[in-house]
Amino acid sequence: MKKLARTGALLAVIMVLLIVTACSKTKDTTPAAAPAETKAPTVDATAAPAADPNKKITLGFSQVGAESGWRAANTKSVQESAKEFGIDLKFSDAQQKQENQIKAIRTYIQQKVDYIAFSPVVESGWDTVLKEAKDAGIPVLLTDRAVDVADTSLYVTFMGSDFVEEGRKAGKWVVDTFKDKKDINIVELQGTTGSSPAIDRKKGFEEAIKDSPNLKIVKTQTGEFTRAKGKEVMESFLKSMKSEGKKIDLLYAHNDDMGLGAIQAIEEAGLVPGKDIMIVTVDAVKDGMTAAADGKINYIVECSPMLGGQLMQSLKDLASGKTLAKRIVTKEGTFTPDQAKAALPTRPY
Ligand code: GYE
Predict the structure, then answer these.
(1) How far, in Å, from the CA of 346 to the mean position of ligand 1?
(2) Measured from the CB, is residue 123 less than 6 Å from ligand 1?
(3) Among 198, 194, 246, which residue's Cα sits nearest to residue 218?
(4) Could you report the per-residue pLDDT of 150-196, keeping only the tens digit for each?
(5) Residue 9, Cβ neighbours under 10 Å: how many?
(6) Ligand 1 centre and the CA of 289: distance in Å?
(7) β-pairing verdict for 250-253 and 299-302
(8) 17 pLDDT exceeds 50?
(9) Out of 27, 159, 248, 300, which residue is the most buried by the measure of CB atoms under 10 Å away?
(10) Ligand 1 atom closest to Cα of residue 70
């Protein structure tokens, strides 16, 4: 027994000596017990930063702007969810300018935030700044809109709607609605030039109507996703179609706000929106749904702005070492005027 106790004591001394030597080799800032994968600063933007459940997460978020009702609801969702999840949010509004977003992202890199999330105003031109974030070891998450980059490891995930599918839904409704009618003139109000929803909503719509020779897009122009520009462009559509002696049968607007601006232009021209000119839009925000319930918009394809909760949960997941899906698609529906009327009272935005 004595011998056993002595061997035990000797082993204990050796263990203590080993631990002391190991500790003296590490700097004070690195806890000796930290698991290997959390020690070195990571340069892989897809990897989670050091997992510390007690550390408050800092998020730098660069918003597109305040161009629409959708954007206002999205900003609210991000800000409220950050509070709810106890995330320190640094928020900036880029006023629909890519250069402002690039500046904001660089500021967040300098401030050494834990994560950067943004809704890119346009698809292209992000390679350099995203590489800078990656080199700084800051994971980037895309919310709402996509980027077009050669190296997809520059972002962790892209969460948001399938805009091509939204365009298809709008197109299918138009095909069905006008299937027995000839020579249908369609005008299109596109979103911000170069943005993923504008590119994809156009693409999906064109794809859906391509086998219907009775449907023709006769005018198409950007209305920049705003009500004011939507009105202005619709006025010019109405004017030029009139001077060409043609009638507009349908307006396809890439968002509710442009549709609402166009409604004003249609009414001011003495026409009845929803009757003289049928209207299909995308978003389903409160004002759009109200216009649909009033019969001024005939069909709305839903696009949900409520991405905040999902974003904050994703940050928590990343911080605890989980891997996120590269693409997280939002589920959404469509609304006829009756469905809009029924949904309005309980609609949160
Ligand atoms: O449809 C529009 C907004 O990116 C999905 O941006 C978003 C679009 C939305 O301005 O209203």
Answers:
(1) 22
(2) no
(3) 246
(4) 999 999 999 999 999 999 999 999 999 999 999 999 999 999 999 99
(5) 10
(6) 15
(7) unpaired
(8) no
(9) 300
(10) 11
